[in-house]
Amino acid sequence: MNETLPQCPECSSVHAYEMGALLVCPECGHEWAAGAGEVGDAGAVPDGAIRDSVGNVLADGDDVTVVKALKVKGHPTGIKAGTKVRGIRLNPGGPDGHDIDCKIDGFGAMQLKSSVVRKA
Q1: Which residues constitute the signal peptide according to the record (predicted)?
Q2: Whole-structure pTM value
Q3: Which has the higher per-residue pLDDT, 64 or 38?
Q4: Which residues of 11-27 are buried (b: 16+ CB within 10 A; e: fewer)?
Q5: What pLDDT score was predicted for residue 45?
Q6: Of 18, 13, 14, which is closest to residue 1 (Cα–Cα)?
Q7: DSSP secondary structure string, 30-51?
Q8: Neighbours of 60 (CB within 10 A)
Q9: Residue 64: CB atoms within 10 Å
Q10: In the chain, how long is the greatest CA-to-CA distance?
């Protein structure tokens, strides 16, 4: 490998490796986009862009997948990892970091954090 890979943004480990288009940290398991924060084919990414758990930029109308199980107040079961959410709306000023408005089948309208979803 000619280029040096960046440190993990979660734990600062220097042992990151490439897996397809993602970089992976073997110590904490964090995954992120190899070119996160760089200029892509479509042009510059806005600084205030909302990104998913692996660094992909999200936009209104995108479909996402929940990456970890979530507890829901007032509901006997939570949202399982792998649940598909269609047609999200971004809400950058959402309460407590909940920057995605969506509807989930069986749960109704709710807000999610971008850190618990991955672009589908």
Answers
A1: none
A2: 0.61
A3: 64
A4: eeeeebeeeeebbbbee
A5: 53
A6: 18
A7: -EEETTTTS-BTTBPPPTT--B
A8: 12
A9: 24
A10: 53
Residues found in the chain: 120
Q: How far is 41 from 44, CA to CA, in rounded Å?
A: 8
DSSP string, 57-88: BP-TT--EEE-S-B--TT-SS-BPTT-EE-S-
> What is the token pair recorded at 46?
């806005």
Are the CB atoms for 118 and 53 separated by under 8 Å?
Answer: yes
Whole-number Å distance between alpha carbons of 120 and 108: 20
Q: Which of 119, 101, 98, 97 is nearest to 110 (CA)?
A: 101
3-state secondary structure of 59: coil
Burial of 53 (0-12, 13-18, 19+ CB in 10 A): buried
Nearest to 66, CA basis, from 78, 49, 48? 78
Q: Which amino acid is it at 73?
A: K
Confidence bin at 47 (pLDDT 50/70/90)? low
Tokens of 58: 């999200």
